[in-house]
Structures are given as structure tokens and as C-alpha cells.
Amino acid sequence: MTVNRRIVLAARPDGAVKPEHFRLEEVPVPSVPDGHLLVRNRFLSLDPYMRGAMNDRKSYRQPQRIGDTMVGGTVGEVVESRHPRFAVGDVVVGGFGWQHYGLSDGGSGLRRVDAARVPMQAYLGVAGMPGVTAWVGLNRIIAPKAGETVVVSAASGAVGSVVGQLAKAQGCRVVGVAGGEAKCRIVVDEFGFDACIDYKAGRLEADLAAATPDGIDGYFENVGGAVLDAVLGRMNAFGRIAVCGLIAGYNDEPIPVQRFNSVLINRLKIQGFIVSEVPDAWPPALAELASKVADGTLKYRETIARGLDAAPAAFIGLLRGENLGKQLVSLD
After folding, report:
1. Rounded Cα distance, 290 and 128, in Å
2. Is the dihedral of CA 76, 80, 81, 87 positive or negative?
3. 54-92 burial, b for 16+ CB within 10 Å, e for fewer?
């Protein structure tokens, strides 16, 4: 336990992310001063927001600095502690980034979790930040009523799959949008959506109209571009749109919208949100999500890359939509 392997940002992308934008380094494992603890990370979370952090431009978070460890959520075990609230062996969720070890003073959102009740890696996905993101966007912004139609883009992903299941449990008709027949089958057969539109099939608008005969009341947006445009054409009066992500434009591609007049015609509510800015939602959301995972009523999928070296390729694949469910890296 003397060497810490980490991946840093080597250069800022201009367009698509490539392997040369990352660099693997070996540095000493930090010593543990009084009031601190050392964590051996077991799983790393890969999330679309990391692409925005690689840019040096105005955003809702500070840009990732060149030469710094890539940002990211982690779950792992305390291996040394000089902190009164944490003991060796505790399983903790933190934000140590793309590295094997992390040093903490117990702040910055570090929290102990029960890995006997829920698998530790699930606290990075369905029972963690992506799950809370789904909970907030659905309950605080869309606020659906039983019988309404809710559409979810990126429906097979870590966030979208949770949105659909929570909306279905509230009595809604739920329609997903995903890429490929295989993903759409899982969205319907495993996650319980009423229908799923394969946007790669070339019939997006016709298929969406067929799946939403009564129009759309709520939309959870993860993608942007053509999917958003098609949904705007089907929105009902006083519909609500929660904007979580716009992954179609994360590599600086244009994401034009032609039907923005629907916002005025249908008096739509559109709200972007950042889940870290809604601290009061985390306790009730985490409690509900963990309970549903533990009793098996909330289903989830994971795509797991093996080894820290695999993180860059896995992240590039995530941005291309190659993952199913939550994208993780096992650091063992």
C-alpha cells in the first residue's frame, strides 16, 4: 500500500474524447494525519457530466484542471482511519475520482453505506447520484399524476431506467426512447415501461406518435436534438420537461430544435436542474431508492469495465451510448 495509481486529464478535447486526453500516473499513497481516513476505492462511477468538466468554459461546475485526477464518484473501504466517525472496514461513498486510494477529512459528502443490504456499487447508480437525479427530476419538476403519459430519453441508462420505474409506480403510462432493439426489449421487459422507441430504427416521429396516442404530459430529457424535437411536437398543454442532460451535444455537435414554438403554444414548463443543488431531496430519495433495491421492486443493470486502465475506453463508450444501465469501473 505504497503506490497509488491514478488517471489525470492530459489535454482538453476538441470534439470527441480520445485516449490521448488521459494519462496514467503512479504517485505515493498519502499518509493519514489526525482527523483523516484513507479509502481503497473498489468501484469508480463514469457519468456523462465528466465530459463537460473536461472543457474550459462556463458551466455549472468548475472545469477539470489539466494534470489533476479525473473527477468521479467512488465507493470503497476504509483501510486506515484517524477519524472518530469512521472505522477500518467501513464502506463509504465519496468523490475520489479515477484512482485507487483517496484521503478524506470526513467531509465533502463522504457517507457510510450498508453494503450488506445493497451491493456497494449500486450506491454509485440506482441507489446513488443517478437514482437521486431521476427522483428529483420526476417528483420535483415533472410531478406526474396517475394516468398521465411520461416519456424518458436514454431509457436504458442509469438515470432513465429509474425515472420510468418510479413513474410507472405512480400510475403513469411510460414510454422510453433508447438506441437499438436489444436495449428497447430490456426497457420494456425488465424495467416495465409500456413501450420503447428505438431511435436508430429511422421511424422516431411515427413510432413516438403511435406510442403516445394521448400526447405527452411529462418528459425527462437526457439527450436533446432530434428526440427533444420529436417530443415537443407531441406535448400536451401545460406539460412539464425536466432537463437533466443533453448528451447529443456533449462533443460540441449542434443540437438544433425546430419546434420550440410548442413551449409557447402549450404553455410548457421546462426546467434544467443539477441534483447537487437540491440537498433536501437526497435523504428521502436515497431512503426510497435503497428500500426498493433491497426488496427487488427497483430493477437495474450495470456495465462494468475491469481495471483502472480500462476507464478511458469505458468513458468514451459511455459517450457513444455503448453501455447498458450504469457504467462502472471495477478497481480490484
Report:
1. 9
2. positive
3. beeeeeeeebbeeeebbbbbbbbbbbbbebeebeeebbb
- Residue 322: which residues within 8 A CB-CB, separation 6 or more? 303
Per residue in 158-188, pLDDT (tens digit) is 999 999 999 999 999 999 999 999 999 999 9
Q: Are 91 and 71 in contact (CB under 8 A)?
A: no
- Model pTM? 0.92
- Residue 111 cell numbers, joined: 457517507
316 close to 17: Cβ distance less than 8 angstroms: yes
Q: Is 314 helix (H, G, I), strand (E, B) or coil?
A: helix
Residue type for position 122: A
DSSP H helices in the chain: 49-53, 129-136, 160-169, 181-189, 204-211, 226-232, 261-265, 282-294, 311-319
Q: In angstroms, how far is CA 212 from the centroid of its own chain?
A: 26
Per DSSP, the residues of 182-235 read HHHHHHHHTT--SEEEEGGGS-HHHHHHHH-TT-EEEEEESS-THHHHHHHTTE
Q: Which residues contact 228 (CB under 8 A, 6 or more apart)?
A: 153, 221, 255, 257
Taking only the tens place, the pLDDT of each residue in 29-53 is 999 999 999 999 999 999 999 998 9
Q: Are 221 and 157 in contact (CB under 8 A)?
A: no
Phi and psi based region of residue 39 (left: phi greater than 0; alpha: psi -120 to 50; beta: remaining): beta
Tens of pLDDT, residues 51-62: 989 998 877 778
| C-alpha cell read off for 37 | 481516513
Give 288: exposed, middle or buried? Use CB within 10 Å, 0-12, 13-18, 19+: middle
Percentage of the chain lying above the pLDDT 90 cut? 89
pLDDT value, residue 257: 87
Cβ–Cβ under 8 Å, residues 298 and 292: yes
What is the C-alpha to C-alpha distance for residues 208 and 177, in angstroms, rounded to an integer? 9
